[in-house]
Write a structure and sequence with these properties.
Pfam families: DeoRC, HTH_DeoR
Structural class: alpha/beta
Protein name: DeoR/GlpR family DNA-binding transcription regulator
Number of helices: 8
Strand order of the largest sheet: 6-5-4-9-12-14-15
CATH class of the largest domain: Alpha Beta
CATH architecture of the largest domain: 3-Layer(aba) Sandwich
Order of helices and strands: HEHHEEHHEEHEEEEEEHEEEHE
Organism: Sphingomonas tagetis
Number of domains: 2
Keywords: DNA-binding, Transcription, Transcription regulation
Distance between the termini: 52 Å
CATH topology of the largest domain: Rossmann fold
GO molecular function: DNA binding; DNA-binding transcription factor activity
Number of strands: 15
Length: about 260
């Protein structure tokens, strides 16, 4: 297959879902891993895609903040009361994956928020963009907190910095705990492109991506894709997940953890 044909297929694959895994490209292109890496490197230099852990994704351009600071989606205080028993069980299970003294990233959200009560005494270093999570962890004297710089979005009480990577502290953490607006075959989705740009910065820094979503998030939905299912290591949800949805997650090579509310 000629290089131009391979590049067209690569770009089509990325455009379809926002992310494509190396193993998918090997199957579709019938090319060696070295050839695929060279193709991806060339396309990245041209600004057509970005190489990430496990594959390549579409280029996310972070918009400039101007005007009133509002995000699409449900305000935090309202979303906090939705599916609360499920979120509490998921948060407790996620906290159980943390190891004493390690660094973790916790993305803002009402399900990741439920981890906080179970982190006391673990002496974690936590990077988060959520002031709700900061406030929940402040009473924990042994928990060290880091936050990025940026603009405050009051409805979600979250700090977002579309200006660029330099707004994030130089911090490496083995685990990222992240929520989502929706989960589907195309991956993890959010309702607002500004959230996508910031969450990609977290994903690209993490060694292990752990998604926390209650079963209501497995819906037929459209939205901006943060990452493909192939980029996820573990997904924690509740026992309301349908068999077909569970099979979809496991087919992508994701470890599925199901908890009872």
């Amino acid at each position: 297959m000629h290089s131009s044909e391979r590049e067209r297929l690569i770009l089509d694959s990325v455009a379809d879902a926002g992310f494509v895994a190396y193993r998918q490209l090997e199957e579709r292109l019938n090319a060696s891993p070295a050839t695929i890496r060279r193709d991806l490197a060339r396309l990245e230099r041209l600004g057509r895609l970005e190489r990430v852990h496990g594959g390549a994704r579409s280029v996310v351009i972070a918009p400039t903040i101007s005007g009133p600071l509002h995000l699409a989606g449900t305000p935090f205080d309202e979303a906090l009361q939705q599916h609360l028993p499920q979120k509490r069980a998921i948060g407790r299970a996620a906290a159980g994956l943390c190891r004493r003294g390690e660094g973790v990233m916790i993305d803002g959200g009402t399900t990741t928020f439920q981890m906080c009560a179970h982190l006391d005494g673990l002496e974690l270093q936590v990077l988060t963009s959520s002031l709700n999570i900061v406030n929940a962890l402040l009473p924990q004297a042994a928990t060290r907190l880091l936050v990025p710089s940026g603009a405050l979005f009051r409805e979600q009480n979250i700090i977002l910095a579309p200006a660029g990577e330099e707004s994030m502290p130089r911090f490496h953490a083995p685990k990222l705990f992240m929520g989502a607006a929706a989960v589907g075959a195309q991956g993890i989705m959010q309702a607002d492109i500004i959230l996508v740009a910031n969450e990609r910065r977290f994903v690209d820094r993490a060694e292990e991506v752990i998604i926390l979503v209650d079963s209501s998030k497995f819906i037929a939905s459209s939205g901006a894709v943060v990452c493909g299912l192939e980029e996820i290591d573990t997904l924690i949800t509740d026992s309301g997940i349908a068999d077909a949805q569970a099979a979809m997650v496991e087919r992508a090579g994701v470890k599925l953890v199901v908890v009872d509310p």
